[in-house]
Specification:
The structure is a single chain. The chain has one domain (7-215). The protein is built from 4 helices and 9 strands; from the N terminus they run E-E-E-E-E-E-H-H-E-E-H-E-H. It has helices at residues 80-84, 98-107, 154-166, 201-215; strands spanning 14-16, 22-32, 37-44, 52-55, 60-61, 74-75, 139-142, 147-150, 175-177. The radius of gyration is 26 Å and the shape is globular. The termini are far apart.
Length: 216
């Protein structure tokens, strides 16, 4: 059975520039309301100061360079100098401001005010080409209920259709922090029964039965 990839696996992985040089660690993923899918990552540490936003489109999966890497590491479509010079944006916020978004679009050569009907969504002609997250599973945000839903659910399909009717007027801002799939920790209680080595099992069993009768 084929295991489908999701964006959850990128969090905590390394990001590399287009030449294979390590940039930093992927800390968050941001979803674009206009396209209906994750479109940006924030990278921190390594060569960077603070959180730096980089587009996902044009990226490729990076082969493991060290024991800490695996196929979920990401090679971005820009060189290290371009990424280092990107506007610093606070990735701790769930939303970016419109001004921050416009700065990011402008810096990477995108058109923030592009016609919403365009399939490129302002990301340029290369947007429709293959990228590292091709066929990834992800969650979709429903603006009507402000909830994240798994893509593929029947309920989700209905919501997507409703959402398409609302998108005729552009959102004030587009990017929101992507909500990962919740992982519920499983705890296991261990019960250990110890027998005394000072007496035979038959004596211990007899004493146990005696105690049970006294408590009845």
């Amino acid at each position: 059975m084929e295991t489908r990839r999701s964006y959850d696996g990128w969090i905590g992985r390394n990001a590399y520039d287009q030449n294979g040089e390590k940039i930093g660690e992927i800390t968050d993923i941001f979803y674009d309301d206009r396209t209906g899918r994750p479109e940006w990552i924030s990278v921190k540490g390594g060569l960077l100061k603070g959180s730096t936003f980089v587009p996902i489109h044009g990226s490729q999966l990076h082969p493991g360079a060290t024991e800490d890497d695996d196929e979920d590491s990401l090679r971005l479509a820009f060189d290290k100098d371009m990424i280092k010079g990107a506007p610093n944006v606070d990735a701790d916020n769930d939303h970016l401001s419109q001004m921050e978004e416009q700065e990011l679009w402008s810096y990477y050569g995108y058109d923030y005010n592009a016609d919403p009907k365009l399939k490129t969504h302002g990301y340029g002609t290369n947007y429709t080409k293959n990228r590292a997250d091709k066929d990834f599973e992800y969650r979709r945000f429903d603006r009507g209920t402000s909830e994240w839903r798994d893509v593929g659910d029947e309920e989700s399909v209905t919501i997507q259709n409703q959402e398409a009717q609302v998108v005729s007027t552009p959102e004030t801002v587009r990017l929101r922090k992507y909500q990962r799939t919740e992982m519920v920790p499983v705890t296991k209680e261990e019960v250990r029964v110890e027998r005394s080595t000072d007496m035979p099992d038959s004596v211990q069993d007899e004493r146990t039965r005696s105690r049970q009768q006294q408590t009845r």
